[in-house]
Amino acid sequence: MPATSAPRAARFSLPDAAGHFGPYGGIFVPETLMAALEELETVYGEARVDPLFQKELRRHLSEFAGRPTPLYFAERLTQHCGGAKIYLKREDLLHTGAHKINNAIGQALLAVRMGKKRVIAETGAGQHGVATASVCAKFGLECVVYMGAVDMERQALNVFRMRLMGAEVRSVDAGQKTLKEAINEAMRDWVTNVRTTHYILGTAYGAKPYPEMVRDFHRVIGAEAKEQILAREGRLPDELVACVGGGSNAIGLFFEFLDEPSVKMTGVEAGGRGIRKGDHAARFAGGKLGVLQGCKTYILQDPDGQIELTHSVSAGLDYAAVGPEHAFYRDKGRIDYAYATDDEVLETFQLCSRLEGIIPALESTHALVHGMKRARALGPEKIIIVNLSGRGDKDVQQVAKLLGEKL
Ligand SMILES: *Cc1c(COP(=O)(O)O)cnc(C)c1O
What we know:
Structural class: alpha/beta
Strand content: 15-25%
Shape: globular
CATH topology of the largest domain: Rossmann fold
CATH class of the largest domain: Alpha Beta
Strand order of the largest sheet: 3-4-14-9-10-13
Number of helices: 15
Number of strands: 14
Bound molecules: pyridoxal-5'-phosphate
CATH architecture of the largest domain: 3-Layer(aba) Sandwich
């Protein structure tokens, strides 16, 4: 299995020494966190070129998380669309149900390396919280997860999962009581307990070194997919599609292909009820340059810089800002961005379940919506890989309710 190894080409020179991807990224945090971020950067810098660390990481990814994940030819979805071949990268088969475990394992190993015995994390839908609780149990680390009170109610099952694995879930009652407030609380905790505590951030976002580090822990997705499609089809895919919340599963799939000009890439954001203020979370469709939670990037905000309300049927894409590396590649025209609406997602969620026997996460279904549109537009000689970032078990109750089914 390919390692998350050291830089080797031009694309690898990003971010620069100050954590910038062009005008995006950086380190916008309280001074009290600077020492911790510098320590993390140093330790990660050593670990990424340490063959023993990489070997241990690969072992846990294989034995604990279940890598490599299959690249699956979705034959019936392909027939249904009547165009390009659709392949699914099956991150949904990973332990705890989504790609998030790749990063959680990597950062837990770094916490151990730094001698930090306490871990904190934020979570929205609960997927990152569950992944973090799981790795903390495995490595014997104390675990505190911050979660908005509204999300705790919506995702009661994931709250109980985390508690079963020994994590303490702390309810956050401020503001909208969702992910943004949970991140604020986690950062407050980190400032207070920085000497003993590592903050496992759940996406390719935040202050340097998080966007780059989280990306690197997910690069294994694209590295495997490249090997698998070459073995299966003898050539590179024509298009890659992945959903974009903070951006970690997407950049994880895309990164290994950035140097391949023939491969088109599209990130899919949450179009919610449509692109109107407060009804969506498509940062590239309505956002402007700003700073939020450590990072300069595209943000959904009002003219005064106040963060706008966001909406998506999928909690994992429901965030007002997007990872800085995506903003950079969007400016460069190297990655395109589209969105899928709640209605499209609900329909495709059922279609994929029925045709393939795979219940996709609502987040991943956004990618599927766009992948299927592209498949219809392209001929049968073309190949599309869609990142199935997670499984939909966590979403079935919500979907039943939306469809008016009584369970
Ligand atoms: C969290 C989550 C996402 C969104 O996060 P990214 O960092 O953008 O990948 C997407 N899919 C699933 C299944 C998730 O749990």
